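The authors assume throughout that readers already know how a fold can be written as discrete tokens. Each protein is reduced to its one-letter sequence and a matching series of backbone shape codes. I therefore recommend that a typical entry be quoted early in the introduction. For illustration, here is how one protein appears when written out as sequence plus structure tokens:
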Amino acid sequence: MDDDATTARQAFAGGGPGAGGSLQAGAGSGAVAGFYRRMVEPLLRTDEGVDAEQLSRLTLMGLSQVSLRRDWPLVEGALAGLGAELQRRNPRLQQTLFGCRFANPVGLAAGFDKNGVAAAIWHCFGFGFAELGTITAQPQQGNPRPRLFRLAAERAALNRMGFNNLGAMAVRRILERQALPPSGQRSAVLGINLGKSREVSLELAPDDYASSLEVLAPLADYAVINVSSPNTPGLRELQQETQLRRLVERLRRLPGCPPLLVKIAPDLEDDAIDAIARLAYQEGLAGVIAVNTSQDRLGLADRTLGATGRPLAEESGGLSGRPLRHRALAVLRRLRAMAGPSLPLIGVGGIDSAESAWERISAGASLVQVYTGWIYEGPELVPDVLEGLITQLDRQGLATIGEAVGSGLPWRSTSVN
């Protein structure tokens, strides 16, 4: 067996955001989560140790080979075992939004699988959808390393990656090589998150985004306009109403344009949030994703980053994870109040439990995404959230997750007789 195939077998070690070991077909319940707790979680308990970016890169190297070889009998069996452990299929969790059928409301946020190398297998980890990218028109190396840092005690991360990716044409080839099922026939919905190339001016940004979308649209169930990363100079200026409207109108002129969503920053003032809600309605956007990482240090300004010895107040980059939870919720609530009930919203930022996921859904999110919380909590986070949502539906007397969206119902820890 060649080296790549060996890597494919080894990739099931962590079953998710980890690496090493093995998972045999038909592995017992809890095999992946158990391995993660024993071997990967200890690496995440301190800021120091294995480089965060290197750990993610090694994981994706293995998962890319698994995705390419998912029809091989041994790999197929291992994926079936993975799915048996992590998937939770229940029709009460299904929704159809902007023409896409979501098996459940929990997705992988953009930023982990930047080049779509594992696009064909994210459903095996329990996800109802996965967002690939951020992808730019041309390849980008991103910002200098180190550029991804753990804040273990706070269950948070600081990143200043800078849209490092292989570029739209290379990502298209990667996705085509995986022989994905056609849109509408996939086990997990696939979104494509698009960003501005670093060297392109704001004036030329619409054409830059359009060149990426034109390449990737045939493979996307939906597309996201990322105008909110703090790690590309000037990018957030595209959230200004006039700039964003010009960008949206340019993309919608493309033949075969998929449903378009926009991802916004948590650091916007209320009037800017209101303007985006109006624009989404006026331009017929499919939805809004709230939120990206924060330039606010969220009470951690004096917290020293071990890798540099400097306080967070002196570090560039976006903060993600648990400290973002309350601000992300506030932005979502503002959007829902201004946009009304019909605009689909995706909640992301600080979601690391069933309770925090329910909180976002009850506030108006039809879908939620995880990333930093998934890294810290491990692969069992997704089934734990899905089980918790079903339990809440029972306790609240609701038939489907759609009834919970925007309901304002609080988390109920016990049943009411």
About this structure: The longest strand covers residues 129-135. Residues 1-86 form one domain. The chain has two domains: 1-86, 90-404. DSSP finds 13 helices and 15 strands in the chain.
